[in-house]
Amino acid sequence: EVQLVESGGGLIQPGGSLRLSCAASGFTVSSNYMSWVRQAPGKGLEWVSVIYSGGSTYYADSVKGRFTISRDNSKNTLYLQMNSLRAEDTAVYYCARDKGYYYGDWGQGTLVTVSS
Amino acid sequence: QSALTQPASVSGSPGQSITISCTGTSSDVGSYNLVSWYQQHPGKAPKLMIYEVSKRPSGVSNRFSGSKSGNTASLTISGLQAEDEADYYCCSYAGSSTFEVVFGGGTKLTVL
After folding, report:
1. What sign does the dihedral B48-B54-B58-B60 (CA atoms) show?
2. pLDDT confidence of residue B42
3. Residue A86 φ/ψ, nearest 5 degrees
4. Is B88 on the interface with A (CB under 8 A)?
């Protein structure tokens, strides 16, 4: 059974940093495209970043230069390092298995709140 | 890239059919057969309902169907049931020179 479990969210001050984790089971992270998608409170979904199986990474313009997606193959875990956080980054962050520009498996999400 | 345009809300009675539209541009919906649809109940993660315009994942009811014409994609739900009440989001690949995915703003489906 495929399972994705995010962790690492919390309350952080503007300008701070946070690292989200997404532990996968039932499949191999490094053999798949993996994405982060976020949802601000009461708002719609927003694609954040993707890492290809070959290691290439891409980011939404809104987070480019501040967020870094990575993975640890030995731990079968996806990460999102978030720096220089802003109030507008407040959202539930989901990791998702990207099956080719669509998302077939999702985690339960982790809430990031950026506030002083 | 701007978000895809969806109606804020639609409604229907049990047993009826409804259609949710998703309008993009020639740079996203119009250029790629890579439109997907997600159902999201309150407090839950999104669930894939349709991918590649009209394909249904295993386990998704055949009451859900997708189509596309030009820059507009559509999700049709037939034989509405109470449990279909949820938010629905469309999504399209939008990158050519760089990777980009855009979502619609979401549509709240109310089953009357």
Report:
1. positive
2. 95
3. -120, 160
4. no
Interface mutation vs chain A, best among B100, B101, B108, most A CBs within 10 Å: B101
Q: With CB atoms and an 8 Å threshold, state whether A100 touches B34.
A: yes
Chain A residues with CB-CB distance to B47 below 8 A: 106
Contact call for residues B73 and B42 (beta carbons, < 8 A): no
Q: In a 3-state reduction of DSSP, which class is residue B82?
A: helix
Span A40-85, pLDDT tens digits: 999 999 999 999 999 999 999 999 999 999 999 999 999 999 999 9
Task: Please answer whether residues A90 and A17 qualify as being in contact, where contact means their C-beta atoms are separated by less than 8 angstroms.
Answer: no
Cβ distance B51 to A102 less than 8 Å, yes or no, reads yes
> What confidence score (pLDDT) does residue B97 get?
65
Please determine, for residue B49, whether its predicted confidence score (pLDDT) is greater than 90. yes
Q: Which residues contact A67 (CB under 8 A, 6 or more apart)?
A: A48, A49, A59, A80, A81, A82, A83
